[in-house]
Amino acid sequence: MRFPLLAWSFSDDELMTLRGTHSLVNLYSAAPRQVLTLHPVEVPSRRIGHFGFFREAMQPTLWPRSLAALQSLAAGAVPPGTPSGATTVHTMPS
Predict the structure, then answer these.
(1) For the chain, what is the HEC assignment?
(2) What count of other Cβ atoms lies within 10 Å of the Cβ of residue 38?
(3) What is the pTM of this model?
(4) Are strands 5-10 and 88-92 parallel, antiparallel or unpaired?
(5) Looking at residue 28, what DSSP letter applies?
(6) Rounded CA separation 36/82 (Å)
(7) What are the b/e assignments for 67-82, b being 16+ CB within 10 Å?
């Protein structure tokens, strides 16, 4: 795979840790890769967890970010981090 890959890691995800996300993303070494770590305080929410992204409560916050990231990827750009200072962007080395 050579197209840009963007993975989101939620800081309170009890099933897929940041380390696990990095391990998964690193399987695609030929692709430009980024991992964004999102924290519940950014949403704002008390908790996101592993399945929280799919909750209706995340529709006004996380879903538009996801759509913007997909549109950016479709346009051939690697999506930048969000404006919030709480987001951590990890650009993976080739």
Answers:
(1) CCCCEEEEEECCCCCCCHHHHHHHHCCCCCCCEEEEEECHHHCCCCCCCCCHHHCHHHCCCHHHHHHHHHHHHHCCCCCCCCCCCCCEEEEECC
(2) 24
(3) 0.78
(4) unpaired
(5) -
(6) 9
(7) eebeeeeeeeebbeee
Q: From residue 44, give the alpha-carbon distance in Å to each of 2, 41, 67.
A: 34, 5, 18
Contact (Cβ atoms closer than 8 angstroms) between residue 13 and residue 48: yes
End-to-end CA distance of the chain: give it in Å, rounded. 13
pLDDT in tens, the chain (94 residues): 777 888 999 999 999 999 999 999 999 999 888 899 999 999 899 999 999 999 999 999 999 999 998 888 888 765 655 444 445 666 666 5
CB 24 within 8 A of CB 5: no
* 8-state DSSP, 83: S
